[in-house]
Structures are given as structure tokens and as C-alpha cells.
Amino acid sequence: VEMEINLRKAIEHNEFVLYYQPQIRPIDSRMIGMEALVRWKHPTKGMLPPGMFISIAEETGMIYELGTWVLREACRQMREWHDAGGPLIPVSVNLSSQQFHQTNLVAYIRKILDETGLDPQYLELEITEGMMMDASVSTVILNELTALGIRISLDDFGKGYSSLSYLKLFPIHKLKIDRSFISDITNNDSDKAIVATIIAMAKHLNLEVIAEGIETKDQLDILMANECKEIQGFYYSRPLSAADVEAAFFVPM
Ligand code: G
Ligand code: G
Ligand code: MN
Ligand code: NA
């Protein structure tokens, strides 16, 4: 309850910031996208990770307000970077299940894109398999979202109650291979086979694929040997503040 009250105050006082984790094309180490990850800049406890507050925000309904702020801030920041001559790459934003099923989701995303002036092709929404259990509902939502021109990626792919039929039913652009398959990939032949199979399947289905949670060169080598074209993980970069992204990844002008 105390956490709930503090979280409500944090929303009122605008205590959230976005960090950005670079997504890298390993053949030339270029940044090809970024995932926006919310942090709570707590006045006394420092920078709190989403694991400490997202589920409370979801349980209390505060996720709508927080999620809208995250979307607007990610789009605003991306537009600002584009205007400043930064790389023309998309930002991906995580959606909670409640947001995905919010009746006015499409309308407010359109509004945010209008207000920030971000070209829709540079916004990617990350959803998880669990959100699509009701296929008839998800089809309508996803079709409306993609009609806006934004991209959809399937986060934590392989971890949940995956049904491969989702991949042919829904308009999805990218699979994000869950990091649980990566952590032990250098030792575990099953993980290696699963990852290789996901990459091959994505290729046949004309889907982009990104591997998450790459921490070591050995892991990267396996992904590259299997022709994974996009990598997100601590090996390249942890999630960074906006200022640190600029310092580390933008060519000085
Ligand atoms: O950054 P970190 O590894 O602590 O993130 C932990 C989890 O929090 C991840 O699963 C991520 O998807 C989730 N998360 C981060 N930012 C957001 C956000 O803006 N909205 C939602 N719904 N989840 C987020
Ligand atoms: O569930 P989701 O994919 O949204 O989670 C993203 C989270 O994964 C981020 O909070 C980020 O900090 C974390 N993450 C990204 N790369 C790595 C990595 O290489 N190792 C570990 N342990 N976590 C990572
Ligand atoms: Mn994610
Ligand atoms: Na993930």
C-alpha cells in the first residue's frame, strides 16, 4: 500500500525516466534500434528498475498513465534525435497486457505520433505471446496498429505458451528470442538447437529476429554462425540514459 501511494506521487511528480538499450547489427556493430526501458528516479532510493514497480502499476491501473507517458517520451526523444541528425532507427516500447487491451490504445498512439511528429515506421511495440490468447480480439488490435504504420515485435519469444499459429494469424514484424535460451547457449545443445530453429523459421516466414541477453563473445559467435542479424545484450551495451546514448553511439556533429 505504501508503494502504491508512493507510485501515485511519482506519477504526479514526473519521477520517471527512460533508459535505452542499443540493438546492434553484429556484422558492422552498427546500432539499428533501441529498446526504451522505464526507470523510477526515486528521490531517496535512487534509480529503481521496472521489476520493482511495473506489476504494482498494473495491479492498480496506474499502468495506463505510466504507459502513456513512456510511449510519448520515447516518441518525443526519438523525434528529437532524428531532428538533431541522429541515426534514423526505431525505438521499441514494451506494452503491458492492460494497455494492449485498452479500448482507446490505437487512438492515443495515433495522437502521440501526431503530437511528437515521429514517423510511425520508427515506433515498434513489444507485446508478448500471452497477450494474444484471444485471437479474434488480438487480430483486430494488431491490424489497427499496423495500419498506423508502426511495427510489432513479439517479446520473450519461446518462453510463454507459444502457439506457432500466432505467427501466421497476426501481423508481426519481429521475433525477440527470449534471453533464457541464450544464457547457457555455449554449453547447452538444446538451447542452441532451439535458437537456430527460431532463426531459421523467422527467415522462412520473412520475419526479422533479434536475440536478447547476449553477454559474451562466445554467445555472440554462436548467434552469428546461425545468421542472427540483430543482437541486444550487455555484450554491446547495458540500457543507457539518453545522454549516455548520445555520448557512446552518436557520431559527433
Ligand atoms: O530494464 P529491466 O531489465 O529491469 O526490465 C525488466 C522488465 O520490465 C522487462 O521485462 C521489461 O519488458 C519491463 N519494462 C521495462 N520498461 C517497461 C515499460 O515501459 N512498460 C512495461 N509494460 N514494461 C516495461
Ligand atoms: O522482457 P524484456 O525483453 O522487455 O526485458 C528487457 C530487459 O532485459 C531489460 O531490462 C534489460 O536490462 C535486460 N537485459 C538486456 N540485455 C541483457 C543481458 O545481456 N543480460 C541480462 N541479464 N539482462 C539483459
Ligand atoms: Mn522488451
Ligand atoms: Na525479452
UniProtKB/TrEMBL annotation:
<feature type="domain" description="EAL">
    <location>
        <begin position="1"/>
        <end position="253"/>
    </location>
</feature>
<protein>
    <submittedName>
        <fullName>EAL domain-containing protein</fullName>
    </submittedName>
</protein>
